[in-house]
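Data deposition worksheet. Section B asks for the primary sequence of the deposited chain exactly as it was used as input, without tags or linkers unless they were present during the calculation. Section C holds the resulting structure in token form. Section D is free text for depositor observations; keep each observation to a single sentence. Incomplete worksheets are returned to the depositor.
Section A, Depositor: J.P.
Section B:
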Amino acid sequence: VEGFGSGNFPLKGEASLLPLFEAARERGIPVVMVSQAWRDAVDLTLYESGAEALKRGGIGGAGMTPGAAVGRLMHVLAYTRDPGAVRRRMAQDLAGELTVSRPSRGGAGRG
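Section C:
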């Protein structure tokens, strides 16, 4: 799922993504949150929407691009379907696809 900034998304009304996270958790489907922003990284602990996603099994995609997150998730799911193991493996940097979150100073884009 592509969120805003550090992983924000609509919480209320018809646009709320919470039902998506709930349905995915019930079915054992991992949901990785990445950002539409070109700088910084997703941190689901910063705002209410991220906290709600975490409660429902959401996985923060750190600084991965959407394409990197999809490729990484396919790789991880080839080895395990266990939700805890998927979460741990998604957090491990294998080939420089995860960026360290730092305050934005302009300049370089996502890693």
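Section D:
The first strand starts at residue 2 and ends at 3.
The two ends are 18 Å apart (CA to CA).
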